[in-house]
Amino acid sequence: MITYLKGYAKKKDSFMSSVGAADGGSRVLWTIPMSLRDFPETRTRVDAALAVAKRQPKGGVGRALKRLLIRLQYNGSRRYFTRQPETVALCWNGITGSRRVFMEGARDAGVPTLYAELAPFPGRMQLDHTGVNALGSLPRDARFYTSWAAGRPDRQGEDWRQLGANLTARVSRRADVGQATGADLAGKNFLFVPLQVPNDSQITLFSGWVGSVPNMLAALGKAAASLPEGWHIRVKEHPSAKTSLAWPLASAIEVAKGRIVVDNQTDTFEQVRASCGVITINSSVGLQAFFYDKPVIVLGEAFFALPGLVEVAASAEALSGALDRAESLSFDPALRAAFMNYLDQVHFPCVSDDPIAGVVIDQKTAQARIAAARAAVRR
User: Fold this and answer.
1) Would you tell me which of 23, 49, 266, 302 could form a disulfide with 100, CB atoms 3.0–4.6 Å apart?
2) Paired strand residues for 278
3) How far apart are CA 253 and CA 69, in angstroms?
4) Closest CA to 123 of 366, 284, 354, 370
């Protein structure tokens, strides 16, 4: 039996329900259980969850109320799952705020966990027993992928490129950010920076040394001086970001002395295609740039931040050094093929999108992920 926290969206709930169908059915929780009685771990779990809550409370009273809510939810979740040792806890995302303590409560109760999330490729989803994005179970050793692919032509070829066959730029929710085509970018030497949503969990949890999107822009402003003559950095704001980054962008442009250009109108993937490389904290566009055979500079934590796949710039000095070598940035094509084939064949399960049933996972695949979650607890 799968127990999942309602996602309040057809895509989320239909996917989690289909996972449950592979294990005999689902139990849906419409709200997170609550309890006043603390555990020894309560304070630690609450502190960690509050620090990465997507909606940060304002003022002392707001913070106290938010802390109380998360505390009650952790205690309630842990007690609930202690009484349901046979179940598997499933949650959408599950790594920030209230949903984090829901999953931590399950984990601390000794219950297997599964985390669901969108995948960076059409027709795929994430379903992982350790977490999503940078917290997922993907090995962080390039040798794992080359060993997995060794002696297997089907794991070394170009089949992985089919993952990007239906890739399209995200529809913009902002009037000042578009996806227009037909821009003339030929012959321009630039590195493209697709900005991320500033309060997204990818930033709040995994931004590494830059810490935030505005800090990233400030670092780029300083590092732009290291670019070869005639090169520039081309920046586009995220089409789903609710607030403009006009002020930090203006500051970065001033520091960079014109070597940063903002293009919020040209289609994201047109800019990727025309670029000489992509710079990102950990955006999926950095991974998707592999389809265009572009070198990628990663500043934060990402499951694809492996030397050879990308250039890992773990400090301001490393970023300046990478920009200084912009003309010779490269990657290992064989490693990329092995890695991407692994994502295709193993890591990101296929899903079907039915107008009535919603998003549905193959039952054998779901059963294998559920078995992996249970095995992880036994270890």
Assistant:
1) 49
2) 192, 296
3) 42
4) 354
Q: Where are the domains of the chain?
A: 2-119+348-378, 142-342
Helices and strands, counts by H and E, the chain:
13, 13
| Number of other residues whose CB lies within 10 A of the CB of residue 354 | 11
Q: pLDDT tens for residues 273-300? A: 999 999 999 999 999 999 999 999 999 9
CA separation for the pair 6, 35 (Å, rounded): 19
| 54-79 pLDDT, tens digit each | 888 989 999 999 999 999 999 999 99
CA gap 97, 281 in Å, rounded: 22
Residue range 126-147, pLDDT digits in tens: 999 999 999 999 999 999 999 9
Instruction: Find, among 317, 172, 304, the residue nearest to 244 by Cα.
Output: 172
Q: Which of 163, 162, 158, 120 is nearest to 138 (CA)?
A: 120
Q: What is the dihedral of CA 92, 196, 349, 366, to 10 degrees?
A: -10
Please, what CATH class does the domain formed by 142-342 belong to? alpha beta
* The residue count for the chain: 379
Closest CA to 295 of 276, 270, 312, 274: 276
Provide, for the chain, the percentages of residues in helix, strand and coil under a 3-state DSSP scheme, each rounded to the nearest 5: 45, 15, 40
Mean pLDDT rounded to a whole number for the chain: 95
DSSP secondary structure of 266-297:
B-HHHHHHHSS-EEESS-HHHHHGGGGT--EE
Q: What is the pLDDT of residues 241-261, one digit of tens each?
A: 988 899 999 999 999 998 999
- Tokens of residue 54, six digits: 């997507």
Encoded tokens for 296: 């990628």
Beta strand 260-262 pairing with 2-5: unpaired
Q: Where are the alpha helices (DSSP H) in 289-359?
A: 316-324, 333-342
User: Cα-flanking dihedrals φ and ψ of residue 113, to 5°?
Assistant: -125, 150
- The pTM for the full model equals 0.94
- Please choose, from the candidates 225, 301, 292, 212, the residue with its C-alpha nearest in 3D space to the C-alpha of residue 258: 225
Three-state SS letters, 3-48: EEECCCCHHHHHHHHHHHHCCCCEEEECCCCCCCCCCCCHHHHHHH
